[in-house]
Design a protein that fits this description.
By secondary structure, the chain is α/β, with parallel strands linked by helices. It is 44% helix and 15% strand.
């Protein structure tokens, strides 16, 4: 299978391997939530190298993990080491010290996937790695890669109080692909249809790979989301369970946000709990982002939103009715959640419009010093896309996920919103719409029109 994207990650790992082969040991840490492609990337990277790839399993005893590790070393390094490898190891320090010795003369790549699962009541795995790295590793030709899907745990390992703090030579977090990056997984889909596919699947390679260009949107969702056991229906809890134990009320907070609560007080009210710790952990793990109005004259209070488009879809559309879908009533659930689906796609499209405006800055179509974001003032007005240069608006924009053409009334409404901005003298007005159609607005020299193809940088 072809590796899509991840050029920077591969480049960093390849450079580290070269240093290790020259006698400068390398410790790399690669982390990110499930399904983002960590295992695929690392197995591809290990090909053609003298390598051991070990995946820790859930709920296995430490003794069982150590026995499995010894088996993998024998299987993957073969006859050269078969007689040297014990039946098992006394502990993880002994296992790692053995791996260090194997790299005395020949380069060795050791990948330990899902490393957080190796922390037990007897020892913290990160502390064990740190001790071995400090006391046993000198000039061996070893590259050790630790990977994990428990994002918050991995970042704690690397943080100021973690065992891996300032130990790793490579630290790389892998997030789901952005809309433009993910286009490579479905290059034949028409642009607007791809936006819909991404809104349901997010930037996860497995999900996007299952979306069929031979089916329309409704048929794909029927197969992937509204059928008992469907991938999109069941994958979100698995992704979240790797990082969250649910005792902190994480699901209630995410459900409140998916239902439209964006301010801290409203999220807490809907979730019916204190949310300071929960919200902080969700932010650090990348599930939630805080958004602030850009410029000096917008609302001072941040808004919060689910940062992962697939998880936002699951919470907004699928979560509350998952039992009905599993019971065979997916078609009925689809019909009564169409409105929520369209609202969700609109939010994804709005985020894509802001990302496109940022690219307009980088390509010189907007001033190079302009910053792009959103703007709101209390409950009175909200602007989807705003570009500021020294607090002066240079572009005021709106994203509309609609098939019908834009009209003069839409432009009038956007100008009215812009009037709330200070120093809004002569900005460009921009609309991003599903088809980019707005014949009625084409005679306005201060109006720019964009469609889904523009957002994807697709000339079609």
């Amino acid at each position: 299978m072809k590796l899509v994207g991840r050029r920077q990650e591969l480049s960093e790992l390849a450079a580290a391997w070269e240093r290790a082969a020259d006698g400068s040991p390398q410790l790399a840490v690669v982390w990110g939530r499930r399904r983002v492609g960590k295992t695929f990337l690392l197995t591809r990277f290990a090909q053609g190298k003298r390598a051991v790839y070990f995946t820790a399993t859930r709920q296995d005893s430490e003794d069982r993990q150590l026995r499995r590790f010894a088996e993998r070393v024998r299987e993957q390094l073969g006859e050269d080491v078969r007689d040297l490898v014990p039946e098992s190891f006394a502990d993880w320090e002994a296992a790692l010290r053995f791996a260090v010795r194997l790299a005395d003369r020949e380069p060795l790549l050791l990948v330990i996937d899902e490393a957080p699962r190796l922390t037990s009541g007897r020892s913290d795995f990160a502390d064990v790695v740190s001790a071995v790295w400090e006391n046993r590793v000198r000039d061996q030709r070893l590259m050790l890669v630790l990977s994990g899907s428990a994002v918050a745990v991995m970042e704690e390992m690397l943080g100021p109080h973690g065992g891996l703090h300032r130990r790793a030579t490579v630290e790389r977090r892998m997030d789901p692909f952005s809309l433009v990056e993910a286009r490579a997984f479905q290059p034949d889909l028409p642009p607007a249809e791809f936006v819909e596919a991404y809104a349901a699947c997010g930037g996860y390679p497995l999900h996007l790979g299952r979306w069929s260009a031979e089916r329309d949107m409704e048929e794909n969702l029927a197969e992937l989301a509204f059928t008992p056991g469907a991938l999109l229906l069941r994958d979100a809890p698995d992704i979240l369970s790797e990082d969250l134990d649910w005792r902190g009320g994480y699901e209630r907070v995410l459900t409140a946000m998916a239902g439209g609560a964006r301010r801290r007080s409203r999220i807490a009210g809907r979730a019916q709990q204190r949310i300071d710790y929960t919200l902080d952990r969700l932010r650090r793990a990348g599930y939630v982002r805080a958004v602030r109005a850009i410029g000096d004259h917008g609302s001072a209070d941040p808004m919060y939103e689910i940062a992962d488009d697939y998880l936002a879809y699951w919470f907004a559309v699928l979560r509350d009715d998952a039992d009905l879908v599993e019971g065979g009533q997916g078609a009925a659930v689809w019909r009564r959640t169409i409105g929520r689906w369209q609202t969700h796609v609109g939010k994804v499209f709005e985020g894509a419009a802001r990302a496109h405006a940022q690219r307009l800055v980088s390509t010189g179509e907007l001033p190079p010093e302009a910053i792009v974001g959103r703007w709101w003032r209390d409950e009175t007005v909200e602007i989807d896309v705003l570009a500021l240069r020294d607090d002066e608006p240079v572009l005021v924009g709106e994203a509309r996920w609609q098939a019908k053409p834009l009209t003069e009334r839409d432009l009038t409404d956007l100008r009215r919103k812009a009037a709330h901005l200070p120093r809004a003298e002569a900005p460009l007005f921009a609309f991003w719409s599903r088809g980019g159609r707005a014949d009625a607005l084409r005679d306005h020299p201060d109006v720019r029109l964009f469609g889904a193809a523009d957002i994807l940088d697709d000339p079609a």
